[in-house]
Amino acid sequence: MIPLSLPGHDRTGSRHREEAVSEAIAFPKSPLAGLRDPRLVRQFSYVGGRWVAAASGETIAVTDPATGDFLGEVTSLSAEESALAADAAAAAFPGWAGALPQERGRLLRRWHELILENREDLARLMVLEQGKPISEARGEIDYAASFVDYYAEEAKRPNIESVTSHLPDAEMEVWLEPVGVAALITPWNFPSAMLTRKAAAALAAGCTVVAHPSHETPFSALALAELAERAGVPAGAFNVVTGSARIVVEPWLSDPRVRALSFTGSTEIGRHLYRRCGDTVKRIVMELGGHAPFLLFADADLDRAVDEAVKAKFATSGQDCLGANRFLVERPVYAEFCERFAAQARVLSVDAGMKDPDIGPLTNEKAVRKQEEHVADALARGARCLAGGGRHEKGPLFFAPTVLVDVPADALILREETFGPVAAIAPFDTEAEALARANDSEYGLIAYLHTRDPRRIYRLSRALQYGMVAVNRTKVTGAPIPFGGMKQSGIGREGARHGMQAFMDIKYVCRDWA
Ligand code: NAP
Q1: What is each CA distance from 83 to 211, 267, 497, in whole angstroms?
Q2: Ligand 1 pocket, 363 CB below 6 A?
Q3: Fewer CB within 10 Å: C terminus or N terminus of the chain?
């Protein structure tokens, strides 16, 4: 029995209230009502296997970034109510950790199937709250599901190792054990995949989970919780808490039962959480900012480099931690690359995500202002604009795909992440100069390299201080790879077997067998 009660919302009461709302279609005037399965639209938090509302009645409104229209609202829990999610996860931990790994794998497999069965609804939900083009949203659902699939398998694989003894009469083993409750904090730009990448790994390892999705995109996470419930994930193993991040995450930071924290978001918030986790010495995984360099050498296949550059900059409307932010191009091909890249940028379509354009709206006004600031600063320092340059007529949160060339090294856009559809290009003359400029950053998530020279590929792949290096291509991610950054881009890795490491402790046992 999970010891959870929220003031004023007894188990049956709150659940029935939510079901009544869902059956009547949660927000009948909202585009959310058009989903094939409107029960995927949940407005309460999922805590201890129940859909619970804040006793205060407080909610957070969610709007469509393409139109500004109200989509719906989610409950905003208090710190005390969020602490109950950690209670639920802690209570569920022994049962989940003690379940056969095959059983955890079976439930994850079912969750994966349900995500794919509901792919279209989940993608549409994501477009409505996040804004990305529907094709990209479908791709993200596949990507999100792939982590659940991968960790359904990986759940069975953490092995016991025996050690060749160095002590007389001793027998040694190394075990891997789940750490306890894991807190997961996810951003708005990949609202489904960032959650499954963390949650599937933690659940496979035997941890139970408390998750906080961004207030910009809570519906995607709540829909995943609904599907986890349908898959049979036991009450308390997977909890999703909506509300103000500062309020609901706080009790988890000081809770010693929360043994791991996995965060994807800005470096600024990452630093704050890192400091706070020190008090209880939590295991940490952090996927932070990117500010990726794109190095193009004159010997590269220019046709390919231009196509890959467009993907590296404009996918996810530029709101991607893997987005190329600094194009450094060797001088002999500089002018041609700038022209051809700008020509492609000028014809990118900009529209609401449901129309499946190349570029959707940005997430909020703050993001649009950052694009304006970076463009104005670069122009003031002598850069030239070859495409776009400002807001787009489609609406207040749309920004035209923009290409700035001759951007000086001290421009803001070459110093900090833009997180939007503005590309900055500058020439270089030597490999040493390109490498020094690429590494001259506090960030180290991904670097893109375009060259045909195999020796240069090897040299630079070694020398670039980045957790990931993409050579002559853009798409590199997927469930089987260790995703993550060096320097202040993060700590730890997600995906692959490495993605389970922060959720497991190593226990060494030494037995006397004499
Ligand atoms: P953010 O402001 O750092 O928010 C990320 C998450 O942290 C959200 O769930 C947010 O909740 C929560 N949060 C905010 N303040 C918090 C606090 N004081 N305590 C606890 N949680 C807090 O970043 P964002 O604007 O959503 O995302 C953009 C940034 O994330 C970019 O810098 C990007 O590079 C980075 N990112 C990195 C990766 C990667 O894998 N490396 C992937 C995607 C994004 P609320 O939204 O509810 O405030």
Answers
A1: 12, 25, 30
A2: no
A3: N
